[in-house]
Amino acid sequence: MALNVLDELQLRYQQLSAKEKEIADYIMRHKNSIHNINIRDLSERTQASMSTITRFCRKAGFSNFIDFKLSLNREIDIPRDELNFFAQTRHLYNEIIMATADMIKPQMIEEVVQQIQQARRVYVYGLGSSGLSALEFKYRLMRMNILIDAVTDSHMMMMNASLMDKQDLVIGLSNSGHTTEVNSALRIAKTNQAQIIGITNFDHTPFTETTDLCLFTPGLQRMGDIPFINSQLAIIYVLDMISMLLLQNEERLSARQRTLHALYKQDHS
């Protein structure tokens, strides 16, 4: 299945010039109103020449701005009541989940699960909010009797990566792909022949250059000007899919049920 306009724009974002990125940012923030403007309007609002906009559209895979706008407009689903806070929030969450599902092919999740099951040890690297997602994933897989640890400190990442070998698997989490500490640790792990899986928003970054397999998720900038939406939502959705597929294995499911039973007994003792 071909990626939609916003997916393609996000993945190609790092290959755009500074001015083209400004155009992309404007379109992502105002995607619901692009159908009301022409190329001259966009030129005035972004302070970019019409030739720059045309070049931007070609980099996004379209012959001109009209083709770009028509394709984008077909994909935009505006909530019926834009003033309703609850409808807006529901729409944003649905959009993030649907965009993630469109960007990730089932066979990619299957390959991640296969690598997790074959690895001697699994490590998840993440800082800040991504570190919280790494810890969440660690606790899930621990309950499936998988040898896993989450590394959420930059110094610990460097030391951990230096002890890797080809039997180890590292899953790196970075929305931007430019988290210096994570990228440095992944390069060390890669030098030691560990397998590297990444989950990120953008292609063509130092992060993606290190990974053996990369899963791409939608970035929040495409959702427009919003006061707060969890930046980890798409990553958590991907981790949910991986977890669900891992639990198709009866031994993993049985291990999780034993941990649930142990916790239940502890709570009622």
Q: Mean pLDDT across all residues, rounded?
A: 88
Helical fraction equals 55-70%
Record field, number of beta strands? 5
Structural class computed from helices and strand pairing? alpha/beta
Q: Count of helical segments?
A: 13
Distance between the termini: 53 Å
How is the biggest beta sheet arranged? 5 strands, parallel
Compressed to H and E, one letter per element, the order equals: HHHHHHHEHEHEHEHEHH
Quaternary state of the chains: single chain
**Hey, roughly how much beta strand do the residues contain?**
5-15%
Strand order of the largest sheet: 2-1-3-4-5
The gross shape turns out to be globular
Low-confidence stretches: none
Rg estimate, integer Å: 21 Å
Describe the protein's architecture and organization:
The chain has helices at residues 5-11, 18-29, 39-46, 50-59, 65-75, 85-103, 106-118, 129-142, 154-162, 180-191, 206-210, 233-246, 250-267, and strands at residues 121-125, 148-151, 168-174, 195-200, 213-216. It has 269 residues and is an alpha/beta fold. The protein has a 5-stranded parallel sheet, with helices on both faces. Strand 1 (121-125), helix 8 (129-142) and strand 2 form a beta-alpha-beta unit.
List strands and helices in order, with pairings.
Blueprint: H1 5-11, H2 18-29, H3 39-46, H4 50-59, H5 65-75, H6 85-103, H7 106-118, E1 121-125, H8 129-142, E2 148-151, H9 154-162, E3 168-174, H10 180-191, E4 195-200, H11 206-210, E5 213-216, H12 233-246, H13 250-267
